[in-house]
Design a protein that fits this description.
Radius of gyration: 47 Å
Order of helices and strands: HHEHEHEHEHEHEH
Distance between the termini: 136 Å
Largest sheet: 6 strands, parallel
Structural class: mainly alpha
Helix content: 55-70%
Strand content: under 5%
Number of strands: 6
Number of helices: 8
Oligomer: single chain
């Protein structure tokens, strides 16, 4: 088989003369090509950024999923641990946990002499959430750690009954202080809080976020009367933050801050706030006394009016009951008459029916007699 001879291809490049028009067209082409190149590079960057974003999102989702799984496993482990511990509780603690659950606690309770552990503190914290009977809780000198204290205070955020909380001489720290601040910011029942001897601040690490959170709670709280922060390792900056909070608080009349490094000007500032609050407190108490006195008089007058109204109501009820009794008697007589008439009508109908039957039978007998005669 013979192949055709190869075809020779020649590419000729024409060099256009460097006229003004040709130069302008060439510049346009180069600008266009440069623009295309820039757009391509920009698109590549966008694609790369989009790819990185997708990878980061995927990584974050996987990390979140792993964290959620870890959290679920941890919660499951803690739940099982608490259930196992609940079955081993005995003595005063077992009774207290049961009473908390069923809202049968006394108004005041102390855990003095009761041996506690991390799991037992968690059990106690979960029972405190929905309790409605306990008012005073004493947890002083129980070796409560910062983590355990955080757990207890978190649970108390759901409790709106407790009025006195003593946690003096424990090992509470920054996390607990932060939770206490959040607790005070929303609570409207707690009146006495004792945190003496807890290192709520670390002077070696300058981080006042926990004290700021505590101060915010003091600012917003409108029911706390007594606060004990003595010997809590607080320095000058902490004192300044707390003094500023006390300027806005109007209910605290007793604030113990001994054993902290507060300078004289801060001590005076806090003392002035306490003095103002005591004057307000005494004024409110006087107003309450006057209101109670007026209310007592109004109660006596209201009681007299109530007695009069009750007597009138009794009279009206007697009249209504007599009218209703007469109405029921009439209705009863009408019902008897109706039943009697129905009975008579029924008897009359039965009588008529019997007579009709008799006539019908007589007619049949006559027809039978006639038919027999015809056959004969």
């Amino acid at each position: 088989m013979e192949y055709p001879p190869p075809v020779e291809i020649r590419i000729e490049t024409r060099v256009l003369p460097k006229t003004k028009k040709n130069l302008e067209e060439q510049a346009k082409r180069e600008a266009y090509e440069k623009q295309l190149e820039e757009e391509r590079k920009q698109q590549e960057k966008l694609n790369q950024a989009q790819q990185q974003k997708l990878q980061m999102e995927k990584f974050e989702k996987e990390r979140h999923k792993i964290e959620q799984e870890k959290k679920r496993h941890e919660e499951e482990r803690r739940r099982k641990e608490e259930e196992e511990q609940k079955s081993t509780l005995e003595g005063r603690l077992a009774k207290f946990v049961s009473d908390l659950t069923h809202n049968q606690t006394p108004s005041e309770f102390s855990l003095s002499g009761v041996e506690m552990s991390n799991v037992r503190w968690r059990i106690l914290a979960s029972c405190l959430k929905k309790n409605l009977t306990l008012k005073d809780l004493h947890l002083s000198r129980k070796g409560i750690t910062d983590e355990e204290g955080e757990e207890i205070i978190k649970s108390l955020k759901h409790n709106n009954t407790l009025e006195k909380l003593e946690m003096e001489g424990n090992q509470l720290g920054k996390s607990s202080a932060r939770q206490i601040g959040e607790y005070l910011a929303t609570n409207d029942k707690l009146k006495y809080l004792d945190l003496e001897g807890n290192e709520l601040y670390d002077t070696d690490i300058v981080d006042t976020t926990s004290i700021i959170a505590l101060a915010e709670g003091i600012k917003k709280n409108q029911c706390l009367i007594s606060l004990n922060l003595s010997y809590c390792n607080l320095d000058r900056e902490c004192g300044r933050i707390l003094a500023q909070a006390m300027r806005e608080n109007q209910t605290i009349i007793h604030f113990d801050f001994r054993g902290n490094e507060f300078p004289l000007e801060i001590v005076r500032d806090i003392t002035n706030s306490l003095k103002r609050n005591k004057e307000l407190y005494n004024m409110y108490r006087l107003e309450e006394w006057k209101e109670r006195k007026i209310a007592h008089r109004e109660d006596e007058y209201t009681e007299m009016i109530d007695i009069t109204l009750q007597q009138e109501h009794i009279k009206k009820m007697n009249i209504i009951s007599r009218e209703e009794a007469g109405k029921r008697e009439k209705e009863s007589r009408w019902e008897e008459e109706r039943l009697k008439k129905e009975y008579e009508m029924k008897r009359e109908m039965e009588k008529l029916m019997n007579e009709a039957k008799k006539r019908q039978e007589k007619g049949k007998n006559k027809k039978r007699g006639k038919s027999k005669k015809k056959k004969k």
